[in-house]
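Appendix C. Worked example: Peroxisomal succinyl-coenzyme A thioesterase-like isoform X3
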Amino acid sequence: MMQQRHKMNMQVAVRRLGSAGGVLSVCHGPKIHTVLRRLSAKAQSPRPILSVAPIRALVDEKFKVSVENLPPAAPVTVHSLHQSEDQDCWEAYGHYISDHRGTVSVSEDLSFGGTYSGKEPMGLLWSMRPVPGSRFGLRLRKMDVCAPMLVNITVFSGHEGFREHAPLASVVTERWHVAPGVQRVEVTIEGMRGTLFIPPGLGAFPGVIDIWGGGGGLPEYRAALLASHGYATMALENFALDDLKGKNLDLNYFEMALDKLKNHPQVISDRVGVVGLSLGAIFLLYLTAESPTFKPQCCISICGSNILSNDGTLNGFYNSMFRNINKSRLDENNSLIWQDVGLEMLCDPTSLVDTAHCCWSVELTIRAGQHQNSLI
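Step 2, the predicted output written as structure tokens:
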């Protein structure tokens, strides 16, 4: 009688254990030890470990992201999240399958989908986009280059609907635009305004003038990063496109900047180049063609063309651009595409700058894809 009652109690206990844990519904006494061993092994299994190396690095420095202690052949998603200084959130993610050891290496393994695919060690950074529901027309930009870009990297279980799962592990990493020892010097001379970044060490260093596009202002992050790689770089404040109507291009503004950089004691005077983006690239192509003193050794034109009129009037450029504004169009994402506006301006011989007689050592022209803006 006692043995029968003990057996019944054991069966009831096992039924309760199974219904609570979802492991079994009915189990007889001899199997209870097997169930308990499985539950104990599950409770003692190590948690996934997420590691990022280096944890602090330049924003363009490759880093290694790896996950350990996963089950073999487990689908997981590695996700990055950054809140910009504009208080907007940006994300990137890749879908991975763990190997037979239960590990994932973002640097070595293939992503099977997400915001990037294939073997992309830096995909968690370069493929960042606004999170769903964000404001329209955002740009990821760095305003305070002396503060790090904080990126939260997390691993989730599964692929589709991974956001519904609790994170398995998470790490915060710092991405910097300024390397240790880089000096930041604000420059204001006779109406010229810029920021000079000087690499660590005695020098002398090759120099770069950095001219941005028609958004105006004084972006510093490209200049800071160039200085972190050994180039004394001056980010030069540019004009906003809306401020140019009715004005002419002041050659002296840019000539003064180049002269100041060439004569800096920590700059190699005969190794100074210029990089321009969009409207800034249009300016520098005109300057190198028409200015008697603006003669850099290297000219890098990013998404810009030689379409500034030969008389140097920005008003003429402004009018020509908006005369062809009907060539602009909206894409499937409701983004304004300017490509055909620029192409139409290139068909007008009076809008072209003759760059054939420019005497630079190196010219590099970088074009964007077919749907990219080329005039900002």
